[in-house]
Design a protein that fits this description.
The protein is mainly beta and 119 residues long. It is built from no helices and eleven strands.
């Protein structure tokens, strides 16, 4: 069982910044990647950014150049620095972790943290 603890959401004006954090704990053996997804009301959950255990990153086109994902391997923590925020970034942001254990994939999701960007 992998637990993900998210923090850092809140209310910010357009053009502002926020940093999200997600700490993984529990049986993280075989962890291969962590990332952030978001879901706005009426929309499907969508990928925001991911980072692999090797340090490779991937971003949604809508956040490239504004968001940066990073990690602290020693703390099993991933961060999402969000700059130049727009009202359309408003959503619940979910942390995700995935890996493989004994040849089988595993996935874990956090509870979500609300990010609201006012215009």
């Amino acid at each position: 069982q992998v637990q993900l603890a998210e923090s850092g959401g809140g209310l910010v004006q357009a053009g502002g910044s926020l940093r999200l954090s997600c700490a993984a704990s529990g049986n993280i053996f075989g962890l291969t990647a962590m990332g952030w997804y978001r879901q706005a009301p009426g929309n499907q959950r969508e990928l925001v950014a991911t980072i692999t255990s090797g340090g490779s990153t991937n971003y949604a086109d809508s956040v490239k150049g504004r968001f940066t994902i990073s990690r602290d391997k020693a703390k099993n923590t991933v961060y999402l620095q969000m700059n130049s925020l727009k009202p359309e970034d408003t959503a619940v942001y979910y942390c995700n972790a995935e890996g493989r254990r004994w040849g089988r994939p595993w996935y874990s999701w956090g509870q979500g943290t609300q990010v609201t960007v006012s215009s």
